[in-house]
Amino acid sequence: MTTTKELADRLDRLEARARKAEDWTDIANLQAAYGYYVDKGLWDKAADLFAKDGTLEIAGRGVYVGQDRVRAYLHQLPEYKDGVIFNHMQLQPVIHVDSEAGTAKGRWRTLMMVGFLEKEGRWGEATYENGYVRENGRWRIASLHGIINFYCEYDEGWHRGGVPLLRSTHGIEPDRPQSFEYEAHPKAVIAPFHYDEV
């Protein structure tokens, strides 16, 4: 016969699993929202998804620390308007949540289509290794680290090599240097994993 304590323990385990599942979904939605906002150059909305002391590091351009600095960086990127494509699809999530601590880690793949009418059109693909934190009851991006795997001209393809990474952003200097040195395809890069096994 099941005791009251056994039932209470089972309920506690079920509640913990349900909380973790809800947190997983919230984090997945958070990251997807980031991708959609970046698609349309909605830089303030994208910056609002970061924690107050969150960091952003993309394409080896250094680390920007704090939501205000993330916002300033994003506003240095080109404006979304007629003739511009900025698609950044967020795919293949591997998310590990510590609901009790209010922290999480996530690995994503982003497929990029970037283009400016009659100027350039490029394909790209990157791995995100991100951290998340529950801040004031809501999940926020604690660290976003985009490691570019390839970036190439759409009409030439990756079999001809790739576009070298741009190592700086005009008008704004990073707060810290990049986490590690790398170059994208045709050089081989493996983004550090936040996990050893799933």
From TrEMBL:
Gene3D superfamilies: 3.10.450.50. This is Nuclear transport factor 2 family protein. Residues 20-144 form the SnoaL-like domain. It holds the Pfam family SnoaL_4. InterPro entries: NTF2-like_dom_sf, SnoaL-like.
